[in-house]
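Hi everyone,

Forwarding the result from last night's run.
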Amino acid sequence: RRSSDLYACLLKKNCYICRMKEEVIIRLVSKQSDLPDFHSRNFFHSKEMFSIMEHTPSLEPCMAIAEDGQGCVVAHMLVGVFRHRTLFPPFVYWHGRAYGEGEYDDSVNRDRVFCLFLKAMTDYFRHKRCLYVEFSDLSCKMFGYDGFRRNHYFPVKWQEVHNSLHSVEPSLRLSEKMLRRISEAKEKGVASFAIKEDSPELRQAYRLLKRFFRFKPRRSIPDIQFFRMIAASDNCRMNVTCYKGRVIGVSVCVYSEGNAYMWHMASLRKTHHSLHPTTFTVWSAIDDAHKAGMRHIYFLDAGLPFERSRFRDFILSFGGKQVSKYRWFRIGVPGINRLVDRLL
């Protein structure tokens, strides 16, 4: 029997509808033409992001919409469903991904509506046969804890890195070693600049991202069409680090609600070690975010949650601080999900 909070669920015309006792209706929309009018401040849950996902091969968006009795949107949350193909062994699978908990009006109970979103989304992921689902970058560590537990998600302790850009000049937070590396790279001819969708460097940057993450199955690099649209957006900045006409580093940042979010980053850290491409790429993204007036820069993936992480320590050397959070996962095979939950 389903929860008393949720009834009359159906999947029809790309809208999954849940009707609550409190006269709040939850709809899951998978086509932009079905989206109602609403205002969004968070790029990760905006109509623009929905459109980018919808026009990217192997990526499907799903927007959860909460409407009151008058049909006004009081909350919304966007997630993406990625399709993967592996060669060894030959296998196709899907996984769900969400950044943050969405946006909510002050007139609604944020925790309660999120629990309803999560219930509906979990049914949607099950319908899509997702191998696993990941929720990250929630506003606070314990947000949605009860809802996640009721829907059989398990938490993984995660150390995130946040850099403040408004109180002190970012360059003043760098060590002498970092300043020397950046200065040496500039003297050797390394430069960083933003690219647009028609830039000749975009294809090089995309190949670098694909190559960098090819053996990291948890990280998903979408089709190049995704990065063309990201580069064309006023809310995103795609920087490349170049040396003698060759792209040796790339970063993708989202500017949203006065903050910058480092989404993707890759570099040729082995073949061009003496040029310090990783250092220069990260510093360029931080410096650009500061010049754009952003208050903070958040690294959405600063390494796996091991006690010791070389990459996380490297990111912290730019003057950031660690913040303890939970990331929530759900594996599509119930038996394995229960086993992993007990082991963690």
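Residues 110-127 form the longest helix (18 residues).

Cheers,
N.
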